[in-house]
TrEMBL record:
SMART domains, A to Z: FolB
Domain of life: Bacteria
Pfam families: FolB
InterPro entries on file: Dihydroneopterin_aldolase (IPR006156), FolB_dom (IPR006157), GTP-CH-I_C/QueF (IPR043133)
Transmembrane regions listed in the UniProt entry: none
Keyword DNA repair in record: no
Protein known as: 7,8-dihydroneopterin aldolase
Organism, as annotated: Caldovatus sediminis
UniProt EC number: 4.1.2.25
């Protein structure tokens, strides 16, 4: 992806490369996430963000057909994240973020790369939140 992603600034639309940005921000779920016994027993508030670099068939200078079939549905991205977060106990935020990222790539063939952030807003009393961001890319097909 771009240098922006490497610096933690997220993805950006890029008409020259035929990419648009599709995102879900601030998705809150109740999940059993963490290494402590109380985190395994009881769900806690978890905040998830997804940024996807998506193939834009109308780039660089067109307008595509106004049909859902040609884009990535952000509602489906949110459902993918909800499902991964609530399937059972996960010890590490890193593992959850990786699972979500790989599920997005598996379910959405137009997504070239995805960044997933998992935050635990209630984990550290004097911090707004703690968490992790991961990035995964679709492997390029060899000719």
């Amino acid at each position: 992806m771009s240098g922006d992603a490497a610096r933690g600034e997220g993805f950006a639309p890029d008409a020259a490369r035929g990419l648009r940005l599709v995102f879900v921000r601030g998705l809150e779920v109740r999940a059993r996430l963490g290494v402590h016994p109380h985190e395994e027993r009881a769900p806690q508030r978890v905040r998830i963000a997804i940024e996807a670099a998506v193939e834009d068939d109308a780039a660089p200078d067109g307008i595509g057909a106004d049909r859902l079939a040609r884009v990535v549905d952000y509602g489906r991205l949110a459902e993918t994240a909800r499902r991964a977060a609530t399937e059972g106990h996960v010890r590490l935020a890193e593992t959850l973020a990786e699972r979500i990222a790989l599920a997005v790539l598996a379910e959405q063939p137009r997504v070239r790369a995805v960044r997933v952030t998992v935050e635990k807003p209630d984990a550290v009393a004097d911090a707004e939140s703690v968490g992790v961001a991961v990035e995964r890319q679709r492997r390029r097909q060899r000719p």
